[in-house]
Write a structure and sequence with these properties.
Blueprint (H helix, E strand, L loop, with lengths): L1 H31 L9 H30 L1 E4 L2 E5 L3 H6 L2 H38 L4 H9 L6 H11 L6 H8 L16 H13 L1 H12 L3 H9 L4 H29 L3 H7 L12 H10 L6 H34 L1
Antiparallel strand pairs: 1-2
């Protein structure tokens, strides 16, 4: 392990002067007589930036500020009745609605933790195995990534059919091999419904972290592992002390993106469990709660309540993502 650390330190020390030398040489060349390249015209830059900025404004910025505005008013159907201040936010955390909110929030947290644990572990394992494999690598990468190219609505519908207790393929397969005791109402049991959703979600998205980890593994110089093996490190020690620390940036990216996606999850749960988060609210999440508040709410102030919920979700997801990104950057800097 000492030799591995020395090799890493020597390569990083050697990289600094070379890059600095190239920078000075190129800078000197421009100063001696080569005129600096012309900047692209403003019209050309605007032609590339404005379409994307317009789409971002229409579909992201405008709805965000509209939701914030709507949340500060009371509504009578689609008519704005008057300024409400923070009353809509207060109602989220009081009475019966507070119980529904915290239950859905807890399910989102469990959904994220379960997906993160299974998805990251299996994605990393598959990436390592494919990195060492010489045959069928491209085929397996394609096979693992195909599910997340399919709409979650379609995935949820197909899995709800396969998990049906009456005619589902999963229970039929278990009975066919004599494992009748393992046949379960996977989406109908309150204790099994959420774990089942986590496994289906992991099945669909496992290809994404696998691709990120594969790219990160391809960028790790083989000299690091060879130096560690020369020092007598076993394969497990090489992975834990050399490979895994260098994969932390990729793990951080997967964690943040998984958090954002799982806190916003709606389509998969809706397709498999309906808008009520069946059975008995065991799979209710914030996305479903927002849907019911906005579109199935008999209260005339549905727009104000749902907008307040949307703002709270955005602030929480955005805040946690920013903090997590900064923490991961500091951890990455310590490894350099």
């Amino acid at each position: 392990m000492v030799r591995a650390e020395q090799v890493v330190a020597e390569e990083r020390a050697a990289a600094g002067p070379r890059s600095g030398g190239r920078a000075r040489a190129s800078g000197g060349g421009r100063a001696k007589g080569r005129p600096p390249g012309r900047r692209p015209p403003v019209a050309l830059l605007a032609a590339f930036i404005l379409p994307a900025l317009a789409l971002y404004t229409v579909f992201i910025i405008y709805p965000l500020f509209s939701a914030l505005q709507y949340s500060l008013f009371t509504w009578e159907g689609t008519r704005q009745a008057g300024f409400a201040g923070l009353d809509n936010f207060t109602r989220l955390f009081s009475g019966v609605y507070a119980e529904r909110f915290w239950r859905a929030f807890g399910h989102n947290g469990l959904f994220f933790l379960g997906t993160m644990a299974v998805q990251t572990t299996l994605g990393l394992a598959f990436a390592v195995l494919l990195h060492r494999s010489r045959f069928g690598k491209r085929f397996l990468q394609t096979a693992y990534t195909l599910p997340y190219l399919v709409s979650p609505i379609v995935v949820g519908y197909l899995w709800s059919l396969m998990l049906s207790p009456q005619f589902g393929a999963v229970n039929e397969a278990l009975r066919a091999v004599g494992l009748d005791a393992l046949a379960q109402p996977w989406t109908g049991d309150p204790q099994l419904a959420l774990p089942t959703l986590i496994l289906v979600n992991t099945w669909q998205w496992i290809g994404f972290p696998m691709l990120l980890f594969s790219a990160a593994l391809a960028g790790i110089p083989e000299e690091y592992a060879e130096a560690a093996r020369t020092d007598g490190a076993s394969g497990a020690r090489v992975f834990w002390h050399v490979t895994l620390p260098l994969l932390l940036p990729a793990i951080g990216i997967v964690s943040v993106l998984t958090f954002i996606g799982n806190m916003n999850v709606l389509d998969l749960v809706y397709a498999m469990q309906g808008s009520q988060g069946a059975p008995a609210g065991a799979t209710d999440v914030l996305g479903l709660l927002f849907y019911r508040t906005a579109f199935q709410n008999p209260d005339l102030n549905a727009i104000g309540q749902s907008s307040a919920l949307a703002v709270v979700m955005f602030v929480f997801i955005f805040g946690v993502s920013i903090v997590a990104t900064r923490v991961l950057r500091r951890a990455e800097e310590r490894l350099r």
